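#struct-queue
[09:14] JT: dropping the first one here, sequence first, then the structure tokens:
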Amino acid sequence: YAASMNRGEDILSVSRRALLAGAAALPVAARAAAPRLPDRSTFPGVEGVFLDSGTTHPVSRAARQAIDSYFADRGGTRAGHHMDETETRVRTAFARLVGATPEEIAFVQSTTAGEHAVIDALDLPRAGGRIVTDTLHFFGSFGLYEGLSKLGMDVVWLTPRNNRIPIDAYARAITPGTKLVSLSLVSTYNGFEQDLAKVCEIAHAKGALVYADIIHAAGAVPVNLAATGVDFAACASYKWLMGDFGIGFLYARADRLPHLRRTRWGYYGVEDINWQLPPYTDRPLGTQAARVTQSNNAEGFFATGTRSHAGIIHLDWSLAYLNDLGMDRLVAHRTPMLDRLRAGLLSRGYTVVTPEASRTPLLTVALPDARKRLSDRLKAADVRIMLASNRFRISPSVFNSMDDIDRLLAALPPSGEI
């Protein structure tokens, strides 16, 4: 807060832009050298063979130390917890990772919170029209679109063909009057990666906007949101961003913001406040409590109240790590492991439902009663993957090696023997 003089009267004025201006140019924390892969030493909490980072990524030693330091500071009554510089650095680092500008990034609680914020800003379902989505989108969003259908939206569900959503299906489904196309850039089910630029081209030609869930793309594969033309994107941070629960990001393309319906007026979106009534000013200047100016960036449209400081401090480390590592190096490290895994699974008679030549970190196998049939075997081998009722999924990260793949394959019998 800063006191300012206006026509000789004391008015308390807040300018978050002024507070952040000095921090905006801070560089991402530099390292002496890029991480060497596989990087097991940075993640000392990984035990046995852990091939399930697509569910929740392990926490690094450095991030834990940073968070411990934060809580040690929080434990003292003289501690100061000024987060503006850290928040600006983290937004800048995420923007760099996904090909955006910091002004297009807002903090949100989760991917779902970001997706709902977009729906609200588009004034749906009141505005009516069509929504096109698909069944390889995040299954947690199915309820959202079923609910919007019940409220009068024309919701069209595309289904996979050969474990992909074909582009021609979008071309047929996106018609004039379509308001939104909603998809996962990388499917949580099988790692299928959409041709996002092509989907956006088709949608924009029909007057529709595009939202992408990027939770399995950001920090996992090269992403350039600006180049794709996508209008909105969101992700949480506990998967491939190597962060924690309760903090994530919403991207809104800068030129779309002026056309959105503003539905949030939170403190973190405030650019300036001039107090008009007591107790913050001695003499009332009007009938409003304050004259509030919201920022015209993504934070101004979507940010609300308190967010996880510990989660942001965690991301301050992990986003620097990922930017320093580089997504091309990460894909190059992972691809031989996934190639060997695919070949080994196919030779054992398993049905792989991840498209061939996929560069994403997820490889999924369709198997009825997978959890029941494999849980004990994998536990005995000290191998952890994602087991569900009708499939299992393997998702290696920076700390995994070919030895991990071989140990998993050794623990999996031919499919006909289980």
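[09:21] JT: and here's the second one, same format:
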Amino acid sequence: TEFNLLNSGDLVKARRISEVGIQTYSREPGFHVDLGSVFYSLGQYEDGIREERVVLRARPTSSWVYRQLILGNLLLNRIEDAEALAKDAEAKGLDSPLLDMRYAIAFYRDDPVEMARQAARATGVPGTEDLLLAMEADSAAYVGHLGEARQLSRRAADSAERAQEKETAAGYYAVGALRDALFGDTAKARREIAAAKPHPRGRDVEYALVLALAYAGEESRARALADDLEKRFPDDTIVRFNYGPVLRAKLALLHSKPQE
């Protein structure tokens, strides 16, 4: 049985319940899954990796656990450890679901040939192709190739649409809008925002859209959506202490009020 403690977004409560669950049901890995996710969300990657290793012992063929472990090690800049985990997963026949992590390792190693190879392996794979295209888009933008990044983001959104992943597609539009706004192309940012709006939007997509609107100078729309985000997720730790304050700070800067 999995224990879905994270729906409200209250990470403090989720951590407390997970820790009590671990003490009460020591052989149930689900609580370690949730606790690891909480630690990752709070940026406490060492603690998250510890919990994920407990889960791996219980679920040694879980590609999801390997993904979490690889991600945590990359976030701590432990590239060799991440690569060793990827090889271990490959030896167990779990390589295909981890193409995104393989791509990320190649990015950290500044290996464009391997990045292209992993992206090519994802072609035509529903639910994976779009993610690799989106990662390629981010990589292109990282080195300043904005036109290429836009094209790849659009392909990622189209791929997600074909896989019936409507919110995922909205996320790609939102990230594309934020990217254009950060580069100063507000007209294209507004078009991307319009493309995302007809789709369902969760917390993270909404945040990207609001931040894109703020960077595009759409102050009134950004403020209204920021209010909506905080009302929709009143107990969400990330919204309360990360997303909300960042949006308020950007809106204050639009009014030349840095003291706020």
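[09:30] RK: nice, looked through the second one.
[09:31] RK: The CA atoms of residues 15 and 233 lie 18 Å apart.
[09:31] JT: good to know. Residues 1-5 have pLDDT under 50 and may be disordered.
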